[in-house]
Every structure is written in structure tokens, then in C-alpha cells.
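Hi there,

I know you've been waiting on this one. I reran it after we fixed the sequence typo, so this is the corrected version. Both the input and the resulting structure follow.
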Amino acid sequence: MDQQTKAALKRDQFIDTTQQGLDWATEHRHGVIVGSIVVLVALVIAIVSGVIYSNRSSTAADLFGQAMHEYQTPLADPSQPVPPGTKTYATEADRAKAANQLFMQVADKYGMTTEGKLARYFGGLTYMEAGDNSQAESNLKQVADSWNHNLAALAKFALADLYRRTGSTQQAIDLYKDLTAKPASTVPAGLAQLQLAELYTAVGKTDEAKRVYAELKDKDAKGPAGMIAAQKLNPAAAAVR
């Protein structure tokens, strides 16, 4: 079969296929129109959702900023006069309670945004500072289970501290081990190991603490965590220097 015939056949097949498509579209005009509308509506929804999310994220960011500003309000110092118009809090717990209300508003209303997730983390911290350990644990666990690895690591680190304070030693140990096995940029493995060793020391498990320090010193001899571990293993040498 020569090239000209092949080209003609391909052209005829194309025409036939196109015609069949047009015939089908004519017979199913209503379905085609409805399908097109559905696709168009889906596209519009996606665009509108993106705009709404952007607006919500912007609002959440503003409210989160207000909460952080409250959280950074200075504490009153009885020995220092407070300048007129300067806001202060008498205690850390009072400040935490005030900031917590703002953080939780952002977390509950804008929980799907980045700011909302950050707000829940700080909500957990401020609950802890205010002495509400149950709410602190609940909110930090939510963040610890989130897809954001770096933020989840921070929440686990805070949870471990909460468990240390409340005597749940084994839970704290498990979290430090998890953070060591799956480090994040926010909580490096060395930091988790140092905290684990300190916890072992605090509960009288000095042999376990030494084992962790030795492992860290060998693994990160020239790094800051390794150097701290070396000092812990040989405090006399560190004192001489």
C-alpha cells in the first residue's frame, strides 16, 4: 500500500471518528451540557474555595498575631516601676490564661489553616502554663498527630515535658525515644536524647543516662549535643577547662 493511500485511509478514519463523536454529542446533547456545567461548577468551586481559604488564612494570621502579642506581654516586676500605659500581667499563669483564650479562638475557628494548627500548639502550651494539664494534653495530642512533621515534633516535645511534670515518666521516655528515632528540624535527635538522659538521671536510672550520653558523644562528638554529653560523662574535665 503506497503512502498516499495510507494517508487517505488515516484521513477517512479521522473523519469517521470525528463524525461519530459529533453524532453522539447531538444525540446526548443534554448530557453533554449537564456534564460541562458540572465541570464548570467544580472549577468555580475550586477557585472560590482557594480565595476563601486565602482570606481565612489571612484573618487567622491576624488573630494569631494578636494572640502572640498577648503571650509576649511582660510580667510585672515589683522592683521596677511600670511606664504609664504599659500592659503587664502579675503572673505567668494570668498571662497564659489570657493568651490561651485568643489562641483557642483561632484554633477552633481556623483549625484547617497553618495558623490554626500553630494556635492549637500554643493553646496547649498556655493550658500547661495555666495549670490545666488535661486540656494541655488533649490539644497537644491533636497537634502531635498532625501531618506537619515539624509541628508534630514540637507538640511531642511539649507533651514529654508535661508527662515529666506530672509523673508519667514512661510516657515521656517513649516520646523522647520516638523523637530520637524520627527527628525533625524543630527537635533534632540530639536534643531529644539529652532530655531523655536528664529524665533518666532525675528518676535514678543513672546507668541508662550514661548509656544515652555515651551514644550521643560517639555519634556527634563535635556537635553541640555531643559536647554536652561529653561534659555530663566527665564533669571534672569540663570544670578544668
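Quick highlight: The CA atoms of residues 149 and 192 lie 15 Å apart.

Best,
R. S.
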